[in-house]
Amino acid sequence: MLAKRLSHLGTETAFAVSEAAAAWSAQGHKVYPFHLGDINLPTPSNIVQAQQRAIENQKTGYAPAAGIPQLREALAADIGARRGIHCKAENVVVQPGGKPVVTKFIQAIMNPGDEVLYPNPGYPIYESQIEYFDGVARPYRFVESPTGFQIDVGYLESLITPKTRALIYNNQQNPLGTESGRAEMEHLAELAIRNNLIVLSDEAYFEMRYSGISESIASIPGMQERTVILYTFSKKYAMTGWRLGAAIAPREIAQAIARLNTNDESCTAHFVQWAGVEALQGDHTESRAILSELRRRRDAAVEMLQSIEGFSLHKPETTFYLFPNVTRAMQSMGYTDVSDFADAALKQACVSFCTRKHFGRPQPGEREQYIRLAYSGISVEDIRAGLGQLKAWIERR
Q: Which CATH code fits 61-281?
């Protein structure tokens, strides 16, 4: 009855963990949620008020497929200034969230049989969309160094063939919480230019950082004309449920994505777009407070995790994810499968988290075991309490 192509369609696997955590909670247990990258902080009040004004002003009908001019212009100015690139409104196509940029990028530039390089571990929707639209998904990998995770650029280069069409690159990376140094980014740019690859630069966490300054691969000479930037309001402004984002692309690709908008959802909600204008141009006091709170949570989570025997991790300066190596802890407890370890942690310590397996198929030769903890949806007090229970459970075993 169903279309065969649905067999190639994956899912955002963190939601499966949500179901298990909700079921355990429904049985009367207090669950400490580290599994989903949602934000349990309020959207800044000036943004909320801007949407209410827009509704009162009857901004409730259709909007242009590519977005209202005011938001496209505001995004072009903001993104151009923060990334050091020249960006016009015609390069901006508003989306109902950041995720649609992934699927529309794939539809716009990939033909069936084309190969697309994507990060693994990485956001699972990359792999899902490549395969759903009959592309060939080629995962590249990371290696752990004393300072964090790095792309295995030599391995990535070995994957490039005459059929390789695109490179998906997620700096400020989910789930690893890592980012490229300048040399690594320049190496990737050189490979893209030399092999004529189109790049999707997923910059969902570009401004979610606690020190330093983010850089975009689009700012490297020769890259803006072959790069599509994924932008989202979800993280910085705690707007995950508002569904507002954008693709920033070369003109030809932007026009194709706008045409896909017309066919898919007609437009992004009109009044939500006016909230986006306020987010970019209005007062940022409350959005800065969101980042300050996330920093407090990161510090608390890192402190607790570093105290757990058998855990090792790097302290990231970006995103709101931690990706500890739990190999020694699992071995000491007799676990060989990280999924079994996660299930036991939920049932016996009431702590829910994702594992490395939720972020792409493990690659041949992987031996180390990792879990991912998101601290965006849990208070400092619950971080300490939950990870305290996790530590106690591991020490008992």
A: 3.40.640.10
